[in-house]
Amino acid sequence: MVMANSEILRRRAVLPIGTVMDLTTLTARQIRYYETQGFVHPSRNAGNHRMFSLTDVDVLLSIVQQRKSGLSLGEIRRMREVKARQTSDSDARKMLQDDILNQSGFTQAGRGPYGQGFN
DNA sequence: CTTCTGACA
DNA sequence: TGTCAGTA
Predict the structure, then answer these.
(1) How far does the CA of A77 sit from the C1' of B1, in Å?
(2) Would you tell me which CATH number, out of the four given (1.10.1660.10, 1.10.150.170, 1.10.357.10, 1.10.10.10), belongs to the domain A1-70?
(3) Is the CB of A49 under 7 A from strand B?
(4) Which of A56, A63, A95, A110 measures 20 to 30 Å from A80, CA to CA?
(5) Which of residues 60-79 of A touch strand C (CB under 7 A)?
(6) Which residues of A72-95 are buried (b: 16+ CB within 10 A; e: fewer)?
(7) Which bases of strand B have any atom within 7 Å of the beta carbon of a protein residue?
(8) Each residue of A63-105: pLDDT tens digit?
(9) Who contacts A19 (Cβ-Cβ below 8 Å, separation ≥6)?
C-alpha cells in the first residue's frame, strides 16, 4: 500500500472540533454524530478532546455537499461503501500488475496470491 | 475558554 | 438536532 508524504500529513489529527466547525459549517453535535456513524475517526488528545485530520474535514465537507443535493445519511454511507470496494479492487489490480512485472507470484501456474474475482 | 458525555424535548 | 448540566 503506497502512501505519499502528503497523504500521511493529511491523515494526521491536529484540528480541534472548533476549527472543524468553522471549516465545515457543521455544529459540534453533528460532527460528533457523524463520528458515531463511522464517517470520521478523530483521535483524542491528553484531555480527551477530539483531534481531526484534514482527511476527516474532506469527508465532512463531502457529507455537507451530498446532503445539500438531497441524499440521506444512509445513502451517503452506501456511496462510501461502494467507493471503498472500487478502491480495493483497483489496489488489488495494481498489486497483481506489480507481481507480474517483477515475476513474483504466478510461478506455479494457476491461482494467484490474491485468489479469484478481480479484473 | 473549549470540549466532553448524557439526557430531554 | 438543539440545548442544558456538570466536568475535565
Answers:
(1) 35
(2) 1.10.1660.10
(3) yes
(4) A95
(5) 73
(6) eeeebeeeeeeeeeeeeeeebeeb
(7) 2-5
(8) 999 999 999 999 999 999 999 888 877 766 566 655 545 555 4
(9) A52
